[in-house]
From TrEMBL:
Keywords: Cytoplasm. GO terms for cellular component: endosome membrane. GO terms for biological process: Golgi organization; lysosome localization; regulation of protein localization. It is found in: Cytoplasm. InterPro entries: PH_domain-containing_M2, PH_NISCH_C, PH_PLEKHM2. This is NISCH. Residues 77-141 form the PLEKHM2 PH domain. Residues 204-363 form the Nischarin C-terminal PH domain. One of its GO terms (molecular function) is kinesin binding. It comes from the Eukaryota.
Length: 367
């Protein structure tokens, strides 16, 4: 693989500046998360996908045409390579707490979200990208000879931060989360807690992208045991959300809002109902298993499930995982790829549990 790119770089006078592995999402296939090798050169960003992507979503395979990719190279186990030229790059949206970033090109075919799930990897890529873009800095457009009030008021200097938006000297926008976005998330959490009266005192202690580990037994072959989730820790509760990482904020060319909300509550539990935390290599390496007491009338999902009094099958997936567990217990098996985020979650959760329960949180090591 790298021999091919070495040849390309020599011919095109390119230089490889950064390489990382990351899960990626594409705007045209928002429900398919796939692992990719991301290469940043002095001219383009390359997304190399493994051969499992060919079968991931066959009804949308028309997205991967010859214009967007170089597919089915028989010499290597690669199915597709998406190339985004830096000259076509328009904006970069950085997610909350640097857990992911979205790259936007000139069309819907060139919108990609990299789910690094790690602030360090996100920061490292941003630094390298800005450095490369500085080499391609575009000359500023000529100023109008007759300046009026409106042109003066609307002009923006490049290379300066303005309202959480950095306009790079290359004219690429780097957009960071603002206080309003964090406030909207806090409001949503308070709404699910049914406690809007204490919104001002609500503190989001941790936001991290993780996976919920589902039982492999009896599941379909094409069903992954890892389901992407957003985990949010507040001073009193733990939440699991299904989040749309690719469609928000809306691209400029979008003609209608996305079909899904940005955040959809999957499950929520009170910290004081947490009985213990299991740490080990079962059922997934370095996964954390949170064991909650299934306290009646304290299930936060009651505020969300419209068919709460209907069949058990209609309840959200995160609400019932009691197979093989003790009666009256709910288990979350959560895998957090970032070791730093995992340790921080345990530390913050243990501190809040001790404040609420008056003793140390039981942490049990498993084989």
């Amino acid at each position: 693989m790298f021999e091919i790119f070495e040849t390309v770089f020599l011919v095109e006078n390119e230089e490889l500046r950064h390489l990382m592995w990351s899960s990626v999402l594409f705007y045209k296939t928002p429900s398919v998360e796939v692992m990719a090798c991301v290469l940043l050169s002095t001219k383009a960003i390359y997304f190399l996908l493994d051969d499992t992507f060919n079968h991931a979503d066959e009804h949308q395979s028309d997205f991967w045409n010859q214009e967007n990719s170089d597919c089915e190279n028989n010499s290597f186990h690669l199915s597709c390579c998406l190339v985004l030229k830096l000259n076509d790059l328009q904006s970069v949206n950085v997610g909350l707490f640097d857990q992911y970033f979205r790259i936007t090109g000139q069309s819907a075919d060139h919108i990609v979200t990299c789910l690094t799930r790690d602030s360090y990897n996100t920061h490292a890529f941003m630094q390298q990208l800005m450095a490369v873009l500085s080499l391609l800095a575009r000359t500023p457009s000529p100023e109008p000879i007759d300046k009026d009030f409106y042109s003066e008021f609307g002009s923006k200097n490049t290379g300066k931060m303005e309202n959480y938006e950095l306009i790079h000297s290359s004219r690429v926008k780097f957009i960071y989360p603002n206080e309003e976005e964090i406030g909207d998330l806090a409001f949503l959490v308070a709404e699910k807690m049914d406690d809007l009266t204490h919104l001002q005192s609500l503190h989001i202690l941790l936001y991290v992208l993780a996976f919920q580990v589902n039982p492999v037994e009896g599941s379909a072959q094409n069903t992954s045991p890892l389901q992407p989730k957003t985990l949010i820790l507040t001073s009193s509760d733990l939440f699991l959300f299904d989040e749309d990482y690719i469609c928000y904020p809306l691209p400029e060319f979008a003609k209608e809002p996305p079909q899904r909300d940005k955040y959809r509550l999957a499950d929520g539990r009170r910290i004081r109902d947490l009985d213990r935390v299991l740490m080990g290599y079962q059922t997934y390496p370095q996964a954390l298993t949170f064991v909650f007491d299934d306290v009646q009338n304290q299930n936060l999902m009651q505020n969300l499930a419209l068919n709460h009094f209907g069949d058990a099958d209609s309840a959200p997936k995160g609400n019932a995982k009691q197979e093989g567990n003790r009666s009256g217990e709910i288990q979350w098996c959560i895998f957090i790829p970032s070791a730093e985020s995992r340790e921080r979650l345990i530390s913050l959760l243990a501190r809040q549990w001790e404040i609420l329960c008056g003793r140390e949180l039981p942490l049990e090591l498993t084989g």
